[in-house]
């Protein structure tokens, strides 16, 4: 795959892409939570920010294939809990249909039936009397018509109770069930943030891989990320052997890091 990495404002670059030329969009826009990006000012008034979201989302709708999927990752801050829902409402007023809501779980503790407690993922403690730790972000699955078929078992998991395989006809004899909408995906462990993740708001490669699998088009998927950051989605496209990837990033430094990351893989 030869990825196309474009420098610039996605509002200006997206119109250069052909209509219906992308099968899948996986992206995470700025969060409007005052995050310190290098070039983007993340402190706009909420209504202005939502208007801006409507503008790029309209372009994404134009370039997305009718059977395409748009996976939109948005997180919140404990003091700003409505943010993901405000973005979602802005994008579904006239543009997209919400087909699925996924929860990207970054850290979790489960109690097994034998009473054992297992904790997994990265738990970032906060110092607050009001708020509990925020251990998840949303991944909204948006489509043009709400009726796009998915490969539900593409990101599936084995049955815990194997007797279900023969008991239920829909399994087709396969030991694989739909994973559901709670995706536990921890951040990759890193030694040095500056060297290995020099960006304040990345998502893990595995999150994008899961979206590619569930979209179900395999290597033929044409993937677009209009807010590329340091190129996580491009790395996922490479690992999944996709034939086409397009990424757009405003900040030259982040784009340079994305290029370096890809060069180490190729
Ligand atoms: C939440 S980050 C995405 C991080 C990315 N998912 C990763 O893992 O590296 C949002 C990115 O959008 C970029 N950005 C902000 N405004 C933009 C615009 N108008 N066009 C393109 N990129 C923009 C920011 O510089 C930032 O890197």
UniProtKB/TrEMBL annotation:
The UniProt keyword set, sorted, is: DNA-binding, Methyltransferase, Restriction system, S-adenosyl-L-methionine, Transferase
Which EC number(s) are documented for this chain? Answer: 2.1.1.-
Q: Report the catalytic activity.
A: a 2'-deoxycytidine in DNA + S-adenosyl-L-methionine = an N(4)-methyl-2'-deoxycytidine in DNA + S-adenosyl-L-homocysteine + H(+)
Q: Does the keyword S-adenosyl-L-methionine apply?
A: yes
GO molecular function (one)? site-specific DNA-methyltransferase (cytosine-N4-specific) activity
Q: Which family does it belong to?
A: Belongs to the N(4)/N(6)-methyltransferase family. N(4) subfamily.
- Please name the source species: Haloferula luteola
Q: Which domain of life is it from?
A: Bacteria
Q: What is this protein called in UniProt?
A: Methyltransferase
Stored Gene3D superfamilies: Vaccinia Virus protein VP39
Methyltransferase as a keyword of this entry, yes or no, is: yes
**Mind telling me which InterPro entries this protein's record contains?**
DNA_methylase_N4/N6 (IPR002941), MeTrfase_CN4_CS (IPR017985), RM_Methyltransferase (IPR001091), SAM-dependent_MTases_sf (IPR029063)
Segments forming domain DNA methylase N-4/N-6: 23-259
Gene Ontology biological process:
DNA restriction-modification system; methylation
Please name the SUPFAM superfamilies in this protein's record.
Answer: S-adenosyl-L-methionine-dependent methyltransferases
């Amino acid at each position: 795959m030869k990825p196309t990495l474009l420098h610039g404002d996605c509002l200006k670059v997206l119109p250069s892409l052909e209509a219906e030329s992308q099968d899948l969009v996986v992206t995470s826009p700025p969060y409007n939570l005052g995050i310190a990006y290098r070039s983007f000012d993340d402190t706009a008034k909420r209504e202005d920010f939502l208007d801006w979201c409507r503008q790029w989302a309209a372009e994404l709708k134009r370039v997305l294939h009718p059977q395409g999927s748009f996976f939109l990752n948005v997180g919140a801050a404990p003091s700003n809990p409505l943010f993901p829902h405000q973005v979602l409402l802005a994008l579904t007023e006239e543009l997209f249909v919400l087909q699925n809501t996924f929860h990207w779980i970054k850290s979790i503790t489960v109690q097994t039936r034998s009473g054992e407690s297992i904790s997994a993922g990265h738990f970032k403690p906060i110092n607050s009397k009001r708020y509990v730790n925020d251990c998840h972000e949303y991944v909204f699955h948006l489509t043009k018509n709400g009726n796009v078929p998915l490969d539900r078992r593409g990101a599936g998991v084995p049955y815990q109770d194997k007797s279900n395989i023969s008991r239920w006809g829909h399994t087709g004899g396969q030991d694989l069930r739909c994973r559901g909408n709670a995706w536990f995906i921890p951040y990759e462990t890193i030694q040095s943030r500056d060297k290995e993740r020099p960006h304040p708001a990345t998502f893990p490669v595995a999150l994008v891989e899961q979206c590619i699998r569930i979209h179900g088009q395999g290597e033929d998927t044409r993937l677009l990320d209009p807010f590329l950051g340091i190129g996580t989605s491009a790395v996922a496209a490479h690992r999944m052997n996709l034939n086409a990837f397009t990424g757009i990033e405003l900040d030259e430094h982040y784009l340079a890091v994305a290029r370096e990351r890809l060069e180490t893989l190729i």
